[in-house]
Please model this.
Amino acid sequence: MKYYQIKFEFMLVNDLQVTLKVAEFKSIKLAAESLDMQIATASAALKRVEKSFGIELFVRSTRNLRLTAAGEKFIPQIEQAYVLLANIGQSVKEEQELVEGEMRLSAPSDLGRNVLLPWINELMAAHAKINLKLHISDSNVDFYRDPIDIALRYGVPKDSSMYGYKICDVPIVLCAAPAYIKKVGIPATPNDLTSLNGLCFQLHGTVHDTWPFSNGKDTFKVKMTSDRTTNDSELVKRWCVDGHGIARKSALEMADDILDGKVQTLLADYCQISTELWLVCPSRQLITPMVRLFREYFQNKCQDKLRELKSAGHLAWYVV
Model:
């Protein structure tokens, strides 16, 4: 008994469609016209199918084209195969267009817990078939090690292999609780901060205690003294709200506390600095309708929150 290995690596599903059209019209030219393609493209598709199966399906002459005996035998089976594969392709496409299934999202600590969480709850209430796994960490995840599909990150992605969407520019604000300001006074310039207590964030062993400021023209850097340092950005905010010192934070993360009067912004003329918030993923294939839904939803929510801050008299310099 002989065994034949059929090689399909260069044959496309569309090639089968071309072959069926050639069999229908008994003409490569008419088949190409019906499929709105060039004759050479249709001819190349037909050759790929014949090469893949290792048989000649048509006898060609300068004027005529007809099915061979093998063609008469196998064209019906090719039609069955095409219909099956086309249906699979359509089913995959329809499934990909559905906003349902599992989403594994990573987000920074404070942003994730206090900003994104109510937004995500609202989004999932409108899309009941989403199954979310939320990973909270101030460290950037390793997509090739951690089970994460997409991640929200501050700063422009440095890895050129990543695919990402910019969500928005995020202003950086300096704030403190009214009780702390009453105790130490309102700083007038960045230099006044050297005698105050900074609430500092630490990541990978590096303490971020040198704070940059800008008035739109000049840049200033201040080395802060601190009695509280943490690797959890949410704790920085808690300490700030509780009146233990001054924090330099994302406006998104401090927005509700600013609007509620739990903290107030300081040195507004010197805080014209922003970072960028991005939604990133490791592969273009992971950019599904669900990812696009999350992207557009986060973009709208972030813009709304920043507009609310600006309308309340904060972020005068920032263009939303």
Summary: The first helix runs from residue 13 to 25. DSSP finds nine helices and 14 strands in the chain. Residues 1-10 have pLDDT under 50 and may be disordered.
